[in-house]
Amino acid sequence: MTTTITTADTVPYPHERCPYCSKHTLYLEFDEWDAATGAPTDTGTHVHCTNEDLTNPRDHSEMPYVYWLPVRVRAARWAAEHIVIADRDD
Predict the structure, then answer these.
(1) Strand (E) or helix (H) holding 79
(2) CA terminus-to-terminus distance, the chain
(3) Quick one: 32 exposed, middle or buried, by C-beta within 10 A (0-12, 13-18, 19+)?
(4) CA distance 77 to 90
(5) Do the beta carbons of residue 41 and residue 34 sit within 8 Å?
(6) pTM listed for this prediction
(7) DSSP 8-state secondary structure symbol assigned to residue 33
(8) Of 6, 43, 62, 79, which has the maximum CB count within 10 A?
(9) Rounded Cα–Cα distance for residues 7 and 35 (Å)
(10) What digits encode the pLDDT tens for the residues 20-70?
């Protein structure tokens, strides 16, 4: 099943736990997609946690290549199969 969204939308990603707080509170944002298929690209898929303290730049950011990168890779694969991004004008 695919879900069609715009780039202004976020998508819950409860398929795994946050590598920092261990809660199922992840969500995805997208800023790049394949124009022909609407599939999010690997580099355009961004994983965030609702428990991140945005006022603290060190929160949820220690060693991101160790903790965030593997999650982002798996999330991007999942999103490419389940998410279609439509331009607002479509």
Answers:
(1) helix 64-82
(2) 20
(3) middle
(4) 24
(5) yes
(6) 0.89
(7) B
(8) 79
(9) 13
(10) 999 999 999 999 999 999 999 999 999 999 999 989 888 988 898 899 999
Q: Which two tokens stand for residue 30?
A: 């997208």
Distances (CA, A) of 69 to 6, 55, 58: 24, 22, 16
Q: Give the containing element (helix H, strand E) for 3.
A: strand 3-5
The dihedral through the CA atoms of 77, 81, 82, 83 has a sign that is: positive
User: How open is the CA angle 77-74-1, to the nearest 5 degrees?
Assistant: 45
> Distances from the Cα of 67 to the Cαs of 4, 61, 82, 86, 90, in angstroms?
28, 9, 23, 30, 36
